[in-house]
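Q: Fold this one first, please.
A: Sequence and structure below.
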Amino acid sequence: MGKFKLQTAQNITIEQNLAGVWQRLLAVVLDLLFLGLFYYILIYILFSVHFNDKFSMWSFMAVLMLPYFLYYPLLQYWNNGQSFGKQIMKIRIVKADNSHPKLGDFLIRWILRLFEVNMIPGLALLWMLFSDKNQRLGDLAAQTIVVKDQVLGHIDQSIFEELSPDYQAVFPEVRSFNNQDIQKIKIVYKQAVKKKDEKILHALTHKIALLLHIEKPENMTDEEFVNRIIKDYNYYAAQQ
């Protein structure tokens, strides 16, 4: 099983399982089925519409092509790196530095997809088979990889933390973080606690304090501090 080491914002390395070539191919097949069903419905509607002239008909058909061109970049951008096919296969697109790709990255992948999938069938597959990270040309150009969606698949690795009704937050600064930041922090925290690695906990504590411009209270251990940060984030997120 291929693995890829991702560098988090806390300067801690996490190993992620790369999505297999067969998983990516199945995701493509599923996406094509979704698009096929969508166009089947639209074509059925098309035949029930009476156009007054050819220009109206061709204009309508041109509009029909937009979903095909927008499906991948827009859906993957708004759906955290996943098309419907990737979501079913539990894989997602991430940047090599584990950040969320920007819209421009998804557009680059899509433009090159037209070349390596539509114009030269098999080129993308060939490139992935000979790539150590299962990347196609679009991935290389956008500096993205496709990984297994393990993080979101387990409740203990999600951002959720159950809080008592009388819980009081200590660090309001955590509101500058987002879900993805806390998710990364929690993954590293869980791994460090499991391995009883004080060095990673200390490095994580230092990085969090630096990012939030705060100091760890002297009466807190590194483990208590990070755990409190995660819980405080959940507290403020619940207030929104």
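Q: Good. Now the second chain.
A: Here it is, same layout.
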Amino acid sequence: MQQLIEQAWEQRELLERREVREAVLATVEQLDRGQLRVAEPDGDGHWRVNEWVKKAILLYFPLQGMQTLEAGPMEYRDKIPLKRGLEARGVRVVPPAVARYGSYLAPGTVMMPSYVNIGAYVDSGTMVDTWATVGSCAQVGKEVHLSGGVGLGGVLEPVQANPVIIEDHCFIGSRCIVVEGVHVEREAVLGAGTVLTASTKIVDVTGPEPVVYMGRVPARSVVIPGTLPKRFPAGEYGVPCALIIGQRKESTDKKTSLNEALRLF
């Protein structure tokens, strides 16, 4: 499949061939089942991006015609079907939440009224809370809480761009924005309103000297919004940053343990 998709990416006329179309459709089907991922851990603390899978998603769009979709009284018109078979998959999706075909929801996932886009991967036991958005190709680990209004950016183009990655057991506070391939490592906590882009300075202020990260939140870090002074021709102003103010500890774990109770009851 990879070879056919790579060829079709360079020569779009090959989409007229049946075996190429079948390769594209099979790739998206495997994404929907969780058998393929846009990005996956390599076991050494790093993640590998499967660019050819992203190419397959982009090639999938021109193969699909517009259609009217109905979910009870609600009507949609789109090229991508809605995800189906939720009961068999062991997931809970609360109206009017939407997960597109080609996204993966692992057993135990809960979607409050929220949105998961094609190519995204949401692992077991994760709560996608009200009005949260999991953008295309974003990777979300096990037992994560995406609080109300969280926005995880999507990334289909350019195909070499890294997706947003939220590792296992993270707590992402209300109205946080994580975009441009930022990688949040396991068990980190982002305080409400934290905005992380590829160029956002993430400053560890817990030691005698600041330590600056960009594009990555270290494991178990507790992060809140902050500002850094910057001089412009018109004067000095505060520009947004994020501050690592400590490491997750038992008291923090207790605050976030309510999520487990919500899932069980």
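Q: Anything worth noting on the second one?
A: The CA atoms of residues 173 and 192 lie 4 Å apart.
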